[in-house]
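Slack export, channel: ligand-projects

TW: morning all. Re-posting the request from yesterday since it got buried. We need the structure predicted with the small molecule present, not the apo form. The ligand is pyridoxal-5'-phosphate; the SMILES is in the block with the sequence. No rush, but it would help planning for next week.
GE: picking it up
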Amino acid sequence: MSLAPSGPPIWKRGGMPRAHSPHTQPTRADAAQNDGLADLHERLERATADLDPPFALVDLDALWANAADLRARAGTRPIRLASKSLRCRSLQERVLARDGFAGTLAFTLPEALWLARHSFEDILVAYPTADRGALRELARLPVELPRARITIMVDSVAQLDLIDAALHRAGDPAVAPIRVCIDLDAGYRALGGRIAAGAKRSPVHTPDQAAALARAILARDGVQLVGIMSYEAQIAGLGDAPPGPGVGSRLRGLAIRAIQALSARELAVRRAQAVAAVRELASLELVNGGGTGSLHLTAREPAVTELTAGSGLYGPVLFDSYRAFTPRPAALFALPVVRRPGPGVATVLGGGYLASGPADAARLPSPYLPAGLRLDAREGAGEVQTPLLGATAERLAVGDRVWLRHAKAGELCERFATLHLLEGDRIVEEVPTYRGEGQCFL
Ligand SMILES: Cc1ncc(COP(=O)(O)O)c(C=O)c1O
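GE: finished. pasting the full token output, ligand included:
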């Protein structure tokens, strides 16, 4: 059995809060939820009446409520902000100005260099780099920006060789060592690999392997070991309450929860041992772990000095399926109804903003408001148009808008140049996304 963090379509479609299923009798809670949705819909429509869709919006009230929830679950640990999950420099600056958040978890080295030039100081690049030009730029950075601290990720000697080659070929020795962090695999393995959970990331799994890589780093000039990171994707990125009334989803939920519990127990021990083994060789500035879905669990591990989170701020659909927390949908996008092909169908412009991961229905965006719309299973969300079905479609006219949610967090920002920021009843600002600033890192 394999429980990858992004397995088959286990995520429920539709938003939180969401309308009751058309196949069940509405309860009083459903009614209250639907009233809440109707209020939100009215507020969104009023605040954006002068805007022409398509456009994207971030509800700051929801975002700050989500930030407070992340902080509460993180306990005393600082949260490093996963920039890939926001992709909006202005919002990242605002979040980092808040208590409880410190440092950026970047997704590429060019991004980290760009952020450093915009005064971001503490940046951990979470994924290994093979960008020789960016490495040479990194080596020269201390001259230009002495306060910037960029750390890059390594999980093998191959990356150390690449760093060496890039720097020596430059004929320009680094003025300060390149800061590196060891990526420790947080995956769970049992029964000789027959049970496996986690993303295929680092080959460094055991404390001995971590110590061996630490020794290899320490034996080299030009690099400095400053930390260990291990991201438990199978817990942090996999909802433990798969949607759906069927026995299948109940069983899947049980299996996920059982394996997550085993994995958390195993990882706490192995991570502590790996950190101790490496600390015997070098003093570490940071031990990073966790993600939106696991803050409350990873925060319990004494070996971990800081956590990471990002997606929980926007609260996308894939984060609706966790028992421990319920983020408010903060990032939405509005599309215009441009035609009515027939009864019960309203077609909006664009909409095919798919999330990365296995190509299943859970990666599609979800119609959110007005409630009672669904994608057409045969067409999904299209490049230029998306038909929406359901009783509500009958009430929509050309020129009306439909609000949707992305399955994931920051990827939405690759589709829009700006985010309109909603506060209370009005749009208070329009800020550029990475894309709007002409940046496209991945
Ligand atoms: C290394 C690492 N840490 C943490 C996270 C968690 O980020 P988020 O809270 O946005 O899910 C991720 C997400 O993929 C990651 O790759």
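GE: first-pass observations. The chain has eleven helices and 20 strands. The pocket of pyridoxal-5'-phosphate is lined by residues 82, 85, 105, 126, 231, 236-237, 291-292, 308-312, 409 (CB under 6 Å).
TW: perfect, thank you
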